[in-house]
Design a protein that fits this description.
mainly alpha
Length: about 70
């Protein structure tokens, strides 16, 4: 839990001071798997999305496909 709160603190301190780039294979709705505290999860998503640009590529993860392929062979 400490790492999650540290990430929140970093995002809060950088808010409106510098850009933050984030990449995720999970939709925001799935972030509660990682950030299990719903309030903390909502606050992190809020910090990342406020005034930002969200790019959804709609593509599958190349790394996930390769890892899955290696497991089945």
């Amino acid at each position: 839990m400490r790492v999650r709160r540290l990430l929140f603190q970093v995002l809060t301190e950088r808010e409106e001071k510098a850009s933050v780039a984030n990449a995720s294979n999970e939709s925001f709705g799935g972030w509660t798997k990682t950030f299990t505290d719903p309030r903390l999860c909502a606050a992190i998503v809020d910090r990342l999305t406020f005034g930002g640009t969200i790019l959804e590529t709609g593509t599958d993860s190349y790394r996930l496909a390769q890892a899955t392929k290696q497991r089945t062979t």
